[in-house]
Amino acid sequence: MISDKQLTHISKFLSLVLRHQPEKIDIQLDQNGWTDINELIQKVNNYGIHLDKEILHHIVATNSKKRFALNDALDKIRASQGHSIDIELGYTNQQPPEFLYHGTSEKSVQSILETGLERRNRQHVHLSNDIETALKVGQRHGKPFIFKVLAEEMYNNNFQFYLSDNGVWLTDHVPAKYLKQNNSL
Questions:
Q1: What is the mean pLDDT of the chain?
Q2: Count of H-run helices and E-run strands, the chain
Q3: Backbone phi and psi for residue 141, each to the nearest 5 degrees, phi listed first
Q4: Average pLDDT over residues 23-50
Q5: Residue 16 burial (CB < 10 Å; 0-12/13-18/19+)?
Q6: What is the mean pLDDT of residues 142-171?
Q7: Quick one: CA dihedral 20, 58, 128, 113, positive or negative?
Q8: For 4-79, CATH number?
């Protein structure tokens, strides 16, 4: 089996091509983000990264963030969310819990307080069910800061929420008035 470092490298590369740049290895994603596994493996190998079905299935099964999903026939794969390209993931509007959380860096707080949470180059704003997950996300960007999102109030005011296959809550925008600073860190 290959090393954890190699698995991480392949997983990051798959995130890149399945979420942002399928053209990098000349694969096609359908309107729901799915691509053929055999073609993906061939194109990744042509790019100089060793990938086979066993490694791919291992990455899908063991990725702690459940970034990838296989279809029922196990012949197609897609990223669960986080696309910067136009993909219809087929999620339906769902009522979120009363509060959700968003982790960011302290340097972004002032801008977020002015504009709210924006999806920027992604299809959705990503929100977490718990503070611990939001903290891990925030730590990737510098000194972490956690916002508490008044999700139920937003939903009651006709904002739409979607729950991705890997448990990430998605919405189009969180206006600043629905954000509370979480000072419990």
A1: 91
A2: 6, 11
A3: -110, 5
A4: 94
A5: middle
A6: 93
A7: negative
A8: 1.10.10.970
